[in-house]
Amino acid sequence: MDLHGGGMGMDGQQHPQRRRAVDIEERRRQNRDAAARHRQRQQERLSTLERHEAVLQQRVSELRTEIMSLHNQREGLPQPARDPLTTTLLSMLETVDGLRSSLDRCVDESVAVVKELRCIARATERKE
């Protein structure tokens, strides 16, 4: 008789069943260990990201302060004088830009109308 319970039973199946149970338990232990390592890596990654976030937030705060300082400096500067020609040219450019936008909208609308007319023409041809 085996004192460790690993001997063969009367049907000869006890040892393979015990081996399977040991294998299953070993896989479970390995899975638990792997899960623990995964959780540890996740925690380390989270800590790294949190530290990085704090650094970035500090940088954002510094940049915002710098922007405010630059805005304040700019407000104290005199506005450059524009000659009448520059003012006229800028006005003309704004007008041209507005006309271009209107023309783009008209072209888009025309394309849509042409597509609709083609659909109507195809539908009419099918009816005939």
From TrEMBL:
Composition bias, Gly residues: 1-10
Biased segments, Basic and acidic residues type: 20-46
Region (Disordered): 1-46
Domain BZIP residue range list: 25-77
Listed SUPFAM superfamilies: Leucine zipper domain
Gene3D superfamilies membership: 1.20.5.170
Superkingdom to which the source organism belongs: Eukaryota
GO molecular function: DNA-binding transcription factor activity
Name of the protein this chain belongs to: BZIP domain-containing protein
